[in-house]
Write a structure and sequence with these properties.
eight-stranded antiparallel β-barrel
Length: about 200
């Protein structure tokens, strides 16, 4: 489905010689869970990176699609027999966001602010639980049997773009939230939510 959307978005502009830019981006995720059964979930920091294509439909409006490797999850803390334990859930995804960008260009300025909103589909590559005590891993558990392969959600954010000759570079802040539970069990309500800070640069 997301591949079809991607093709529909980019085929017409390529044919009609619209302004196309592509590049790379990367940064950090601060990820945790929300939902009825997310009590005790805390943010954990990890990374994301990938490629993007965008085209300018109007002076103030762009559409962008991305292909990202993104590490999400959460952490929690508990005590057992006087020992402090830390549970770290690592969820590895391929994210495919489709984003509308509202650009606010100013004549003669090389710094351009913008707002963004969109949808994303994520495919889970791997899920695991790591249990640590005093900084040492004491157990690991495979969670692939209980985590759904697909995740779907919404995103909002903002960016600042710098015009550097023929290239664009910038900083982006984004909040993404899943709208479906990541657990396969129907009575468990647990959703991804992630704060991301990335930098990007166009290569063409």
């Amino acid at each position: 489905m997301m591949a079809i959307i991607f093709l529909l978005i980019f085929t017409f502009p390529i044919i009609s010689h619209a302004q196309i830019h592509g590049g790379v981006k990367g940064g950090i995720n601060m990820a945790s869970f929300v939902g009825e059964h997310s009590e005790g979930s805390k943010f954990r920091t990890d990374y994301l990176g990938g490629i993007f294509l965008h085209h300018q439909i109007m002076q103030n409006f762009e559409i962008q699609a991305e292909l990202l490797y993104s590490r999400k999850g959460a952490r929690g803390e508990r005590g057992i027999n006087g020992m402090e334990m830390r549970d770290i859930i690592l969820l590895e995804y391929i994210d495919v966001p489709v984003i509308a960008k509202f650009i606010m260009p100013q004549a003669g300025k090389t710094l351009v602010p913008g707002l963004l909103a969109g949808l994303f589909y994520s495919y889970n590559l791997n899920s695991e639980l790591e249990v640590k005590s005093n900084g040492t891993t004491i157990q690991t558990h495979d969670l692939n049997g209980i985590i759904r392969k697909g995740d779907f959600g919404v995103l909002i954010g903002g960016q600042i773009t710098f015009i550097i000759g023929s290239r664009l570079a910038g900083i982006e802040f984004r909040y993404t939230r899943g709208v479906t539970s990541i657990q396969k069990m129907e009575d468990i309500d647990l959703k991804n939510h992630v704060l991301s800070l990335t930098t990007f640069i166009t290569l063409f």
